[in-house]
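Quick entry between incubations.
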Amino acid sequence: MIGHDVFLPTSLLVLCVGITVMLAATAWRRSTSRSFLTGMGTLLLALVFVGHHTGIAPDNGDSLFIQDQWANYTAILIMFSSMCILLMSWRNDANDRTTSLVDEYPLLCMLGTLGALTMVFSANYMPFFLGLEILGVSLMGLVTFRHRPAIQGYEAAMKYLILSGMSSAILLFGIGLAYGVTGSLRFMPPITIGNISPALPVAATIMILVGMFFKLSAVPFHMWLLDVMEGAPVPVAAFLAVVSKIAIFSSLVRYFGTGNQSPFLNDILYIVIILTIMGGNLLALRQTSLTRLLACSSITHVGYLLIAFLCPGRLQSGAITIYLLAYTASTLGVFATMSAFATSDGPDGTVIAQWKGLFFTRPFLASSMSLMLLSLAGIPPGIGFFAKFEIAATGVEYQRNLLLGALIIGSIIGLYYYLNIIRVMMSAPSLPSASLNRHIRPELMALVIVLTVIVVIGGLFPARALHPLLPVSAIPSDTETEMTMR
Amino acid sequence: MNPLPALVLLPVIGGGLAWLAERVRPHTVVPSRNASWWVMLATLIVETLLLAMVTFNHPTIRTGPWLEHFSMPWIPTMGIAVRLDMDGLSLSLIWLSLLLCFLCACLATRQITVKAGTFHFLFLTTLTGIIGTFLATDLFLFFFFWELMLVPMFVLIAVWGHEDRQRAALKFFMFTQGSGLLMLLSILGLVITHDRETGVLTFDYFTLAQTHLSPTLSMLLMLGFFIAFAVKLPIVPVHVWLPDAHTQAPTAASVLLAGILLKTGGYGMIRFNVMLFPDTAMHFAPVAMGLGVVGVLYGAWLSCAQEDIKRLIAYSSISHMGFVVLGIFTGSRMGMQGAIIQMLAHGLSAGALFLIAGTIQDRLHTRDMNRIGGLWTAMPRLSATGLFFAVASLGMPGLGNFAGEFLVLLATWHVSPIIATVTTVGLVLAAIYALRMVNRVFLAARREGQIPLKDLPVRQMAVFACAMIFLVVLGLHPQPFMTFSAPSPLSVIGVTGQGEHAP
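Done. Structure below.
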């Protein structure tokens, strides 16, 4: 048993130590900046140690954690996003918060990151579920940090608590069933052995899938995301849209593998993808709140990602890798621009109408915002263009014509609402005083510039991001060999 | 040193410099605006010199091999490379683009006062997209440029346009982008089919041309391309974006739209529909020719009913582009040459007409023909120029448009006399709308209370004169252009293009 537990990706260890230090420091004396700095430092250190691990992985694959390129890649994305989000909220929450005790905020962010990383590295149901819950509970705390209309934050947190609890319950039930069928806690779809009726593993798989869809906010299970993201502070909304989605998507790929899915899963995924793409896009059409719109857009992007997940082939790995990168960079870019736009006494940038005339008052912010939105819509020169191209390529390779149709219709609708924001920014400014309350926060400007560079360079030279990183359907083949051995 | 990448990148670099030139000294308003303009002019001159070098490097211009070839790996895992090739067709269309850009630079972009640097940057970025589209022979690169040129054009219309600019810009973007996605699927379908056949994943135009396709698949793939180009050209059922976009765009953007952006559609039809799927294109030709005739008649008919000058010219463009479709799909060499001549001539005449309409709007602040009139006495030079280009656009013998239309009609007659006869009605309608415009704008009695107007300065007349001379040459002596601008056949480079991958 000890042998299993020792195998641990070092990044997890670093994060745990960092969080303990933060807790201890909080007990000693409270300081927001120190807390933020410790958090950033820990994340940086964890990023450095991302390829390392302690102990030796057992050969039979029965360890709690796994470390491969896919896990490392998504872990890097998650930690990078967390750093961006910490940077975004550095002074934002100081403005937002009425009381001065805010060092819980970076602490919760770090805990959420720890949960997400645990999910990414897990090869067993236990760490996966623990990570999921750590992430969920810390997110609930983070969501309440919006204090301007305080009641909204609490409402969002309550919604998140209830729905997240429910989905966790379904997931847990599924895990229980899977354990009942296979007698193993390994993180992979259950397979019938012996005389157990085949309905049980199917039920288990479907329940786990539903739980994951809830967290991913695929369409029939998406209702919570819009309200929660709107009620949360802007950086936390980014956390919801990026970190938690990457973590759960990474686990989804790890769980179901990258090979051909079983027929019933195929059908479910087919329907869910079409519903997700169409639903997310249609919901976004009438939104006036930018956060809600971004929530819808993130729903849609999950749909696009699932297309690549459903089309195993030569192109799949590259498509998923680059799409995750594109989605992360562009979404973070939009949120960073929103934070840079917000002022303590003026508009906070969550309503689209507030962005009116930005091209004339703050051209740089407006240009980078447009670039990010175009990248999300899949227009060159942003990285999103190549990512969407790759997704379409996987679909064409597998001739998923219906999904391709949904992709195209979805993209056209998407184009409308993304361009609509750009249109608002281009119309003549309504308030001549808009330039008065501009105050530039250098760290946010730097963040926006960095993300813009990533989006443009990634769009022009995407070749470097195209690595075959997915777990090469190792889990299903492993089980097959095991089956034969038994 | 291969000139092709420089040709593509030069405008966007120049645009960046123009933008910087404005930013350097933001306090002194007037000199800085001029600075960005001068940078743009310098960029265009350098680009022209480069292009002239390319042109005259090849003293014996034959219709055979391609003039220039450039290749550099870009995304090797996907088989995507930066492949640029130039033949007579792309060369002549690039010459047209540069000529029109000079017209814009001399006549239209200097009036831009709000954020001139950004305007010039976007203008030159659009030019990069257009030139890239004309040169790319990697399907991914082609699609990249195809989409890339939409963004700056969208901003040009949405920020510097007229009253209803934002709706028009949105419509323009959504139509072209949506149809572009269909083309993307076609490209991918072709690439994946080729991959299945040979196991080689490549986006190379010449390699893909040798893919064996079943007739159904070939038709589907060709339709994907056709719809994208049909929206851009435009062909009638999908022309809805054009009148709005052309009318609402600022003058320089209108010229770019009508003069060159539409031509990318025609270029794509020749390069990709007809040359990549020759047999399928022949099967599809009756439908395409039918659509072309409908376009000719419908555009001309609506053009007769317009009160807005720019709208009138926009609808006349639809009519003229109908001839291009007709010519391309006749399947004969003559029809193709006619279509190309028509594209060149229309680029010049419609571009010049938009410039004149823009000049009128700058002075009178209206485009409504009911409120303009009797300009001949006030502005004789402008009116004479207007008359010339209006007459050119109605197809006066001796001018370029006539040569193009005549060749197209002749080629069509060989295929189907009925279609040719019906199309001639379009010429009659063209006479009606063009002369109606001339009558009401230039010749009619002066309106009451018109402000005193300043005529075109001599310098600007000289610029217009260049376009006129070119149109006359194109009309009187089209033969060199016809041989020069013919697209190079695929088979020739199929071998050489593979062989010489030297940069």
